[in-house]
Inverse folding.
C-alpha cells in the first residue's frame, strides 16, 4: 500500500507528540486524513474531470477528563504542528475527577480495502473514455431522452490514527458510478437513475445492457406516473428502500450520543420488543463492499459487526468514545467525522436487516392489493418521537400478487416506527447493499451503506 | 472602486488582501506557475483562510470545544484545444494547494490539472474581468475579534432562555463561529478580497409533561450572532416543543395549507434551481424567459415575485462578488409569475447567450398584503411549521414531506399535529398562493413569514 508522504512524515512524529500532550491531559490522540481520486462527469452537452478534494489535515484530540477538546488544522509541518499543539494544550484545564480513557491494547496495523481493479492503476483517459461511451449508450436509448448523465467517482481515503498504544493506518477505496436519464414527452420531464458503488474499485464502472434497458424502461414509465392516493397500503420494499427504513428507524435512534442527550426513546426500550421477530438488524463496518465500511473508526476503535436488533428485540446501541464513557457502556467502532475539521459523533457504517427466508416473488405474490416500493431517495429520522420519513422515487401497483404497469411518483412512507417495524410480515432471502451519504440531523455527512433484503410491511403512503 | 486591490470589509478599511495581510506568498507563487505554463489559457485562484471556534453542549455541560484553522488555495485552470469535431473546445480542471506544498508540488498538481483539462471538450466560454464591486456587509466585527466571548454569550443566553421555559429543558446545542478571509484572482484581471463571518446555532429542546417527552430541533445560520435573537428563538421553539407533546397524527386533508418560516426554505429552493441557466442548459428546467413559470396553469393566487439579492446586508449569500468574480447584484428573476431572466454565472450565461448575473444571492420575495392572522382565519386548514425533511424533486416540483409539527386550524380551535405528510406539486401549489404581510429574515431568505396554498393534500389518518 502506498502511503502518502505527508502521512509517512507524521506517523513518525505523532507518537512523541502524543506523549508530550499526555503530560498535560490524561489522554490524547491524533487523526490524519487524506483523500485522492477523481470525479468524471459526462452529460449530453458538458464534461468535467476533477481530482478529489485532498481534505488533508490533522485533528489532535485532548480528553481533559470531562470534555473533548480538539485542535484541527491543515498545517502538517511537524515543527509548526507541535508548536500549535502546545499552545492549544496550555489553555486546557484537567478536571480532577474525570473519566479515564482506555487507549486499548497495543496495536500497530495497516489495512486496505481489496478491490478487483485498483482505480489508481487505470489511466484517467481510459476512465474518461469509458464514461463518454456509457453516456453515449444512455443517450441513444430512446428518442425521448433529452439528457443523459454519467457521474463516476473513485476516492481513496487514507487515515492514520495514533494514540499512546495504537498506530493504525487504513486506506479505504470507494467507487461509484451513477447514470441518470432525463426524458421528456408531452410537456412532462422526468428522470430516473442507477447507482453502482461500494468499497470497491473500478469494477463498479462496468455497465450491462440489462442495466441500461431497465433504466430506460423505468424512466419512460415515469412519464405516465400518477400521484398516489394517500392512505395505508400493504407494501413490498426493494433492498434500497428497506435499507433506508432500517437506517432511519433504528439506526440514528441507537446512536449513543442521542441517548446521552435524552433524544432517543430507544434508551427505554433496550431488551424490549421493537420490531417483528423476523427482524434482525446489524451495523457492520466490515460488510463486504459496503460503502460505509472501514477497519477502524475515527477514534481508533477496531471495527466489528454490532447486532442492534435481534429477532425483534432491541439489543444495543452504537457508541463514540465520549458517549460510551459517559454512559458507562462498551465502545463500538462508531466514532466518525465528516472530516478532520469536524467533531466525531456516534454514527452508523453499513446498517441493514439480515435476510430471511422468503423470495421476493413470494412476497409480491402474497399482496392482494398494494405497492412495490422502489428507489429510496431520502429519509429522515425522529428518534425521540419515533416518526419516520422515507421518500421513494416511485412505487408500482400490485394487484392480486402481480405488479401491474401502473406507477406512482413520488411515494412517501411516513408513520410510527414501532408500528411499521412490527408490521413486517415477510423478510426476503436476498441481500443487496447500496451506498450513500448520511447526515447527523442536517449536517455532518459521512459515507454510509444501507440496503438489505426485500421486506413486506404495512405503512401510510402519500 | 475599479480594479486593483479592493476593500470590501467594513471592519478594516482599507483591507489588505489576504496574501499581504497574512504574509502568504503562495498566491504569487501559484500565479507564477500559471502564467508560465503555455497550456493554461485562463486561470482562477481563490485563497481561503478560515478560523472556526466550535462549542458543543450536552444539557448545560460543555461536551466538546474545538478550534479549527485551515488555509488552502483552490486553483482552476482552463485549456483550449481542438474538440472532437475539430472546433475549438475548452477544458477545465482544478486543484488545491495546501500550506506545505512547495514549487515542486505545485508544478506537479498543475501538470495533472492541465492533463485533465485537456481530456474534456466543452463549448468555449470566458471568465469575468475586473469590475466595480459593491460594499456589502458580511462581517460581524465582534464575532471576528472575540469569538470565544461571543460563544460564551450565546451559551449563556441559550441556557437562561431555556431555563425560563416551563415543561422544557435543553437537550444539547452546537455553536460554530467562523471567520473567513478570501482573495480571488483570475487571468482576466479580477482581484477581490473579502472578510466574512458565519455562525451556526443548533439546539434541541425537550418538552415533558411527566409522562411523555417530545423534542424540537432547530439549526440556524446567520452572519451576525445578534441576528439569532436567542430569547425569542428559544421561546418560539419551546412553545413548539410543548405543542409537539400533545400533537396527534393529522386527519387526511385536501384544501388550504399554510407553511411558515424555516419550513418554506427548501420549498423555495426549487425555484432557485429551476431559474438557473445551468438547469436550463442541462434541460432540467423547462422554464422560458418571458413566460409564466406556472405554464398553462391558471394562477388564482397572488403573483409570485422573486429576486436574487447578493447585496442584502448580512445575508448568507451576500458578497461583493461571487466565487468567480462577478459583482454581487440584486436582480429580478420572477416578476408577476413571469420568468424575467435566468440567473447565470459567466459560463452558462455565454452558453445561453444571456447576461451573467453572478451566483444566486439571497432569495427575496416581497411581502404580501394579508396579515398572517387572516391567512390562518379561513379554515379548516393545516398550518405547518416544521417538516422532517423537505426535499422537492428539482425537476418536477413534486414533494412528499413528513410533518414534524403543524396545526389543524379551524376557527378559534388550533390542534397540534405531527406525522402525516404533505403531498404536493410546487408549481401547482404556488399557482394558488397568498403571501403574508409579516416579513422574516432567515439568513438566506427575506420575505413573507408564511405562504398560504389553497389546494394541497395531507396524507393523514
Amino acid at each position: 500500500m502506498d502511503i502518502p508522504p505527508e502521512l509517512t512524515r507524521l506517523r513518525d512524529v505523532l507518537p512523541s507528540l502524543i506523549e508530550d500532550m499526555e503530560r498535560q491531559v490524561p489522554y490524547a490522540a491524533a487523526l490524519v486524513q487524506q483523500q485522492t481520486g477523481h470525479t468524471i462527469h459526462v452529460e449530453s452537452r458538458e464534461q468535467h474531470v476533477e481530482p478529489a478534494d485532498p481534505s488533508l489535515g490533522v485533528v489532535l484530540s485532548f480528553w481533559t477528563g470531562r470534555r473533548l477538546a480538539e485542535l484541527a488544522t491543515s498545517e502538517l509541518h511537524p515543527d509548526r504542528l507541535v508548536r500549535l499543539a502546545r499552545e492549544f494544550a496550555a489553555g486546557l484545564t484537567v478536571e480532577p475527577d474525570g473519566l479515564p480513557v482506555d487507549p486499548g491494547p497495543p496495536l500497530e496495523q495497516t489495512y486496505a480495502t481489496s478491490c478487483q481493479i485498483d482505480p489508481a492503476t487505470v489511466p484517467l483517459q481510459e476512465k474518461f473514455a469509458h464514461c463518454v461511451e456509457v453516456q453515449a449508450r444512455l443517450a441513444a436509448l430512446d428518442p425521448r431522452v433529452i439528457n443523459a448523465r454519467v457521474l463516476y467517482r473513485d476516492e481513496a481515503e487514507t487515515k492514520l490514527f495514533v494514540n499512546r498504544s495504537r498506530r493504525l493506518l487504513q486506506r479505504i477505496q470507494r467507487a461509484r458510478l451513477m447514470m441518470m436519464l432525463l426524458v421528456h414527452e408531452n410537456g412532462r420531464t422526468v428522470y430516473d437513475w442507477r447507482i453502482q458503488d461500494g468499497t470497491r474499485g473500478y469494477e463498479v464502472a462496468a455497465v450491462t445492457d440489462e442495466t441500461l434497458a431497465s433504466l430506460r424502461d423505468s424512466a419512460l414509465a415515469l412519464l405516465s406516473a400518477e400521484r398516489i392516493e394517500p392512505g395505508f397500503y400493504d407494501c413490498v420494499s426493494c433492498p434500497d428502500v428497506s435499507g433506508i427504513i432500517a437506517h432511519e428507524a433504528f439506526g440514528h435512534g441507537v446512536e449513543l450520543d442521542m441517548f446521552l442527550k435524552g433524544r432517543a426513546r430507544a434508551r427505554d426500550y433496550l431488551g424490549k420488543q421493537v420490531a417483528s421477530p423476523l427482524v434482525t438488524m446489524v451495523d457492520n463496518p466490515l460488510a463486504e463492499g459496503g460503502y460505509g465500511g472501514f477497519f477502524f473508526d475515527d477514534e481508533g476503535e477496531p471495527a466489528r459487526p454490532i447486532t442492534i436488533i435481534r429477532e425483534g428485540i432491541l439489543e444495543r446501541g452504537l457508541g463514540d468514545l465520549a458517549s460510551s464513557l459517559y454512559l458507562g457502556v462498551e465502545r463500538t467502532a462508531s466514532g466518525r467525522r465528516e472530516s478532520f475539521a469536524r467533531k466525531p459523533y456516534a454514527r452508523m457504517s453499513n446498517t441493514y436487516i439480515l435476510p430471511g427466508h422468503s423470495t421476493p416473488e413470494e412476497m409480491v405474490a402474497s399482496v392482494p392489493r398494494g405497492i412495490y416500493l422502489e428507489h429510496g431517495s431520502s429519509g429522515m429520522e425522529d428518534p425521540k418521537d419515533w416518526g419516520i420519513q422515507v421518500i421513494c422515487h416511485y412505487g408500482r401497483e400490485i394487484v392480486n400478487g402481480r405488479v401491474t404497469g401502473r406507477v406512482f411518483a413520488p411515494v412517501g412512507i411516513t408513520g410510527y416506527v414501532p408500528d411499521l417495524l412490527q408490521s413486517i410480515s415477510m423478510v426476503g432471502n436476498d441481500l443487496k447493499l447500496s451506498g450513500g451519504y448520511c447526515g447527523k440531523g442536517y449536517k455532518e455527512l459521512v459515507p454510509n451503506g444501507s440496503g438489505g433484503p426485500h421486506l413486506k410491511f404495512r405503512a401510510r403512503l402519500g | 472602486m475599479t480594479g486593483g486591490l479592493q476593500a470590501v470589509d467594513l471592519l478594516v478599511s482599507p483591507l489588505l488582501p489576504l496574501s499581504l495581510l497574512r504574509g502568504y506568498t503562495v498566491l504569487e507563487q501559484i500565479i507564477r506557475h500559471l502564467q508560465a505554463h503555455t497550456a493554461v489559457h485562463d486561470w482562477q485562484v481563490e485563497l481561503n483562510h478560515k478560523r472556526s471556534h466550535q462549542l458543543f453542549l450536552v444539557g448545560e455541560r460543555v461536551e466538546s470545544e474545538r478550534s479549527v484553522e485551515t488555509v488552502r488555495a483552490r486553483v482552476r485552470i482552463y485549456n483550449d484545444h481542438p474538440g472532437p469535431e475539430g472546433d475549438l473546445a475548452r477544458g477545465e480542471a482544478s486543484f488545491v494547494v495546501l500550506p506545505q506544498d512547495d514549487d515542486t508540488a505545485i508544478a506537479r498538481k498543475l501538470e495533472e490539472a492541465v492533463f485533465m483539462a485537456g481530456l474534456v471538450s466543452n463549448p468555449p466560454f470566458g471568465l469575468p474581468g475586473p469590475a466595480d464591486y459593491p460594499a456589502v456587509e458580511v462581517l460581524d466585527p465582534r464575532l471576528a475579534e472575540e469569538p470565544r466571548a461571543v460563544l460564551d454569550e450565546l451559551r449563556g443566553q441559550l441556557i437562561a432562555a431555556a431555563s425560563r421555559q416551563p415543561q422544557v429543558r435543553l437537550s444539547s446545542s452546537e455553536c460554530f463561529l467562523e471567520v473567513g478571509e478570501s482573495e480571488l484572482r483570475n487571468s482576466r484581471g479580477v482581484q477581490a478580497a473579502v472578510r466574512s463571518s458565519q455562525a451556526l446555532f443548533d439546539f434541541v429542546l425537550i418538552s415533558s409533561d411527566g409522562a411523555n417527552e417530545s423534542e424540537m430541533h432547530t439549526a440556524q445560520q446567520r452572519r451576525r450572532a445578534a441576528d439569532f435573537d436567542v430569547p425569542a428563538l428559544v421561546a418560539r421553539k419551546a412553545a413548539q416543543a410543548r405543542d409537539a407533546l400533545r400533537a396527534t397524527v393529522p386527519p387526511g386533508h385536501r384544501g388550504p395549507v399554510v407553511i411558515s418560516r424555516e419550513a418554506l426554505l427548501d420549498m423555495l429552493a426549487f425555484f432557485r434551481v429551476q431559474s438557473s441557466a445551468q438547469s436550463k442548459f442541462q434541460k432540467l428546467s423547462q422554464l422560458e424567459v418571458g413566460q409564466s413559470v406556472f405554464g398553462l396553469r391558471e394562477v388564482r393566487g397572488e403573483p409570485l415575485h422573486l429576486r436574487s439579492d447578493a447585496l442584502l446586508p448580512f445575508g448568507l449569500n451576500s458578497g461583493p462578488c461571487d466565487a468567480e468574480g462577478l459583482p454581487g447584484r440584486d436582480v429580478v428573476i420572477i416578476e408577476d409569475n413571469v420568468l424575467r431572466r435566468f440567473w447565470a454565472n459567466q459560463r452558462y450565461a455565454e452558453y445561453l447567450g444571456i447576461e451573467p448575473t453572478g451566483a444566486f444571492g439571497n432569495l427575496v420575495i416581497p411581502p404580501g398584503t394579508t396579515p398572517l392572522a387572516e391567512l390562518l382565519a379561513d379554515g379548516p386548514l393545516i398550518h405547518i411549521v416544521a417538516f422532517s425533511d423537505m426535499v422537492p424533486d428539482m425537476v418536477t416540483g413534486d414533494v412528499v414531506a413528513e410533518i414534524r409539527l403543524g396545526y389543524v386550524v379551524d376557527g378559534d380551535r388550533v390542534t397540534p399535529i405531527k406525522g402525516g405528510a404533505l403531498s404536493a406539486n410546487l408549481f401547482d401549489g404556488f399557482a394558488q398562493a397568498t403571501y403574508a404581510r409579516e416579513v422574516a429574515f432567515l439568513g438566506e431568505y427575506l420575505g413573507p413569514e408564511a405562504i398560504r396554498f389553497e389546494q394541497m393534500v395531507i396524507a393523514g389518518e
Notes: The CA atoms of residues 396 and 407 of chain A lie 5 Å apart. The longest helix of chain A spans residues 5-21. Chain A has a mean pLDDT of 95. The longest strand of chain A covers residues 166-185.
